[in-house]
Amino acid sequence: xxxxxxxxxxxxxxxxxxLMSSHVLLKEALAxxxxxxxxxxxxxxxxxxxxxxxxxxxLQQLLxxxxxxxxQDLTSLSSQLISLALxxxxxxxxxxxxxxxxxxxxxxxxxxxxxxxxxxxxxxGVYNATAKExxxxxxxxxxxxxxxxxxxxxxxxxxxxxxxREAVPRDTxxxxxxxxxxxxxxxxxxxxxxxxxxxxxxxxxxxxTVPFMTSQKPALHLYGSFDGYKILKLPYRNGQDxxxxxxxxxxPEARHGLQNLVNRSRSNPKFFNAQFNLQYEELPDMWVxxxxxxxxxxxxxxxxDLGLELPFQSxxxxxxxxxxxxxxxxxxxxxxxxxxxxxxxxxxxxxxxxMIPQCLRxxxxxxxxDHPFMFMIREETSNVVFFVxxxxxxxxxx
Length: 398
Prior knowledge:
By secondary structure, this protein is α+β, with helices and mostly antiparallel strands.
């Protein structure tokens, strides 16, 4: 029996969140030599919720950056995106054989403040979130533990300590958060018996030995060779609905070509939304490293550097539609986790906003990912990017 999942019917503009991904990769991960993964979808949904609670120039700036014309357009897209990241039969809790999916939103409001009915209606009806009243002033430690436990449980135990204790002042009025979880099995699994240790060449010039995976035998894979990089697409096993998930590996031709590839994606935010011209090719030499790691950062400075400034300005008094007091976004925390092995992929991401009151190819093709590369996880029928990241050293776990 086929179950239909509604797909976004209008253009889903991921440009800002994908641009932010490339910016963070360039400024944080490459500069520090760390692996990197974030969820553009998680950021988009949380920024959309902040937009719903805003007005004036702040609302217009958020709409512009999120690529929507008005609140109605934004909430319609958010509703469809949230549905895209839910189990196909989530109301009946049935698993239809595809990737395991979960996407949850949460709202915590300070005691003595009531969420405005119009905002609460959208929070419940569109974002499937319930608001809980908590005591930030006197029980901050307990509240932070509660939110972090919520994030850990909602991400199947993968995201721990999303919000640091010192990040939540006693005068916090509101915390918005979401949690995304994806677990998919490869349509064609790697052969665990053929996994072997091989050299991986770091950007520093050093070499580390890591487990590399390969297919059961030389097999047909979706592959493309482009100007300076190659792409390998590995589909996940589909369920009984219309969604199709895949993981893409973007491998620079040059061992030190990752920065050029990042610059390419940064100059063209639609890079990850492209319909790549991939063909089925037999790859006698196909090796991808096994990896597992987490990545976290505070996003407010990055967003302001990219021009999204008004929601984070303490003098701004335009986030007024959440509670009966103007707010601004003090901090925005994001933490992601991903594991790729012979069976498939498990990934999770959580984002939280702390809001306080105003104050050309002829040789035999091959794909050997033995040097730093980029990746993404995308839903193919909508082109929605769930995760994007890069591997600089497969041995690093955080």
